[in-house]
Write a structure and sequence with these properties.
With 235 residues, this protein is an alpha+beta fold. It has three domains: 46 residues, no CATH class; 92 residues, Double Stranded RNA Binding Domain (2-Layer Sandwich); 83 residues. Helices cover 37% and strands 20% of the residues. The chain has nine helices and eleven strands. A hairpin with an 8-residue loop joins strand 1 and strand 2. Helix 5 crosses helix 6. The radius of gyration is 21 Å and the shape is globular.
């Protein structure tokens, strides 16, 4: 990309929805930059991604049946990951008879999006085979496009976690006291196997109160939670 193109975007002489702007955004995302939308508590901005796995060994070849293999480090352990051929073909619109080098370029071009998918998929044991290898399929890329539920897990001693849980819900509810609770804002409470409090926030709830939930360590749920086993919080 030419330097003049970058300068035109920075000075707002080019529309933000051009192909050049999309390429810049993708390059920044591949470098670990997350784009944050504006909300009730602040305007739009950027921050660094905190939860991506580290790539230990980059892919070098495409396997015919299993896909594109590479190795990541996740929570101190090495994990072999396979990106399916179908995923890579869909990302760049490849035909059936393209060389392996084309898939390697697709991996680098969409590295940020693929790492996002791995971060979600790695939390689901069904995505692993019997040898501990992680498989990324189209459903994992599709999950990125859907607005996820978020969860907050609160641990510690009984007094500490009860106080923290009360503070979370009280602050969350106070955001809506003046204007009322928007439609589709739902919160459910349960407990983990370790006895910790766990709260599930619907996609709308996470959007409206995203800044608050992040201060309590909220993370996207890898799958839609089973709220039937939880207690719904009345707001």
């Amino acid at each position: 990309m030419g330097l003049s193109t970058v300068r035109d975007m920075e000075s707002e002489k080019r529309a933000p929805d051009t192909g050049a702007a999309a390429n810049v955004r993708r390059a920044l995302h591949n470098g670990g930059v997350a784009f944050v939308g504006g909300g009730p508590d602040g305007g739009p901005g950027v921050r660094l991604v905190a939860s991506w796995p580290n790539i230990i060994r980059r892919p070098t070849t495409m396997q015919k049946w299993e896909g594109l293999p590479f190795t990541i480090e996740w929570q101190g352990k090495g994990v072999t990951v396979f990106i399916s051929r179908e995923v890579l073909e869909d990302l760049d619109g490849h035909s059936e008879n393209v060389p392996d080098d084309a898939f390697l370029k697709t991996f680098e071009r969409h590295r940020g999006e693929l790492l996002d998918a791995i971060t979600l998929a790695i939390a689901d044991p069904d995505n692993f085979d019997g040898y501990g290898r992680l498989y990324i399929r189209q459903k994992d890329l599709d999950a990125l496009k859907a607005e996820p539920w978020h969860q907050v897990i609160i641990g510690g001693g009984d007094d500490v976690k009860d106080m923290s849980a009360s503070a979370l819900i009280n602050k969350f509810a106070s955001k809506f006291m003046a204007a009322g609770v928007p439609k589709n804002v739902e919160v459910f409470h349960g407990n983990t196997t370790a006895g910790e409090h766990i709260y599930y926030f619907s996609p709308k709830a996470a959007t409206v109160a995203g800044d608050l939930l992040r201060t309590f360590g909220a993370t996207p749920c890898p799958t839609t939670p089973n709220t039937s086993a939880c207690k719904k919080i009345k707001l």
